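Ticket #4471: structure export looks truncated?
Reporter: QA, pipeline team
Priority: medium

Steps to reproduce: submit the single chain below to the structure queue and open the exported record.
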Amino acid sequence: MKKEPLIAVIDYGMGNLRSVSKALEKAGGRVLVTESPAAIDSAQGVVLPGVGAFGDASKRLIQTKLAQAAIRALERGLPFLGICLGLQLLFEQSDESGRQKGLGFWKGRVQRFPSRSKLKVPHMGWNTLLPAKNNKSILLSGLKKDDYFYFVHSFYPVPEDKSVIATTTSYGNAFCSAAGAGNVFATQFHPEKSGAPGQRLLKNFVKQVQTCS
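Actual output as written to the record:
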């Protein structure tokens, strides 16, 4: 009997790995939390989670050679899901930690919510998504405009190529809350902490991995 395709969750020491892996398993995925580049190379889907500072995460990914494994997965066109810091790391650089470099899969930078505004930073709590008209990612299938998702972040990406913006969210101004192109999708919010709507997105990702395998 053929095994279900394997989803590798990248463990570089900065992420809520247990909640992400459990949510993916609940969504029907066969999941391996791993710090092995070889295991990531052999997976059929990859998840890059992340909580914490961009600079520390970037350094850890490079030191452990997990950055190279993530880039190989991206270049191969594997189904790839970034979560929170995992979204930000897909861009070229961040204003956090002295303009540290990211994986550079998408052009653009990560910037902080303006401190001069009356909004509380970090942006923390529940908010909605506005899907972009030109982005038809299957990971958004079945989601409703009044679905709420859980956010906790002080920084957000500003893509140079606006066509990769999958959703925006309003917090003072509209910002990119998810990005996607081909089999790559990444969210600023935490689907694993977002109840039924987040679980729907993860089920869509698991289905994508199964379809592409």
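Status: closed, not a bug. The export was complete when the record was re-opened. Leaving a note from the reviewer for reference: The helical segments are 17-26, 37-42, 54-63, 66-76, 85-88, 195-212.
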